[in-house]
What we know:
Helix content: under 10%
Distance between the termini: 41 Å
Mean pLDDT: 97
Number of strands: 10
Radius of gyration: 20 Å
Amino acid sequence: xxxxxxxxxxxxxxxxxxxxxxxxxxxxxxxxxxxxxxxxxxxxxxxxxxxxxxxxxxxxxxxxxxxxxxxxxxxxxxxxxxxxxxxxxxxxxxxxxxxxxxxxxxxxxxxxxxxxxxxxxxxxxxxxxxxxxxxxxxxxxxxxxxxxxxxxxxxxxxxxxxxxxxxxxxxxxxxxx
Length: 177
């Protein structure tokens, strides 16, 4: 008998990078290094607050219809629903246009479409390189809404922007050269 496999732990703390990529040419949703690091992309990893909702997947399990002769009824896979959420990002309402405090606010006006790309398991400050794996979510953003996060002395200015998943995601795709 073969011994059970115990994979090594893959740490997640400070190892989750999020990049907004306006366009991806590959039909498999695997971005190239140039697409993931180009001048029109925005690495939002250090702009997002912990309260940001990650994309979710929900698949219905449905019971089959019992036939007269059936002594047992089984399930089957039903509809799968991919949902976005609320992006909660840092925002400086008094910052100059195109400055770090306003980049995300300016990048995500209502109707913005593109891709949110997530890389996990590598330190967030590590540059994107060919062969790294990530998940790609086609998205559309709603109008951003200025708000604050935290309480009292820890309160910070932020904005909230709802985003929808608009097509099939691409999971664990290698970055192309």
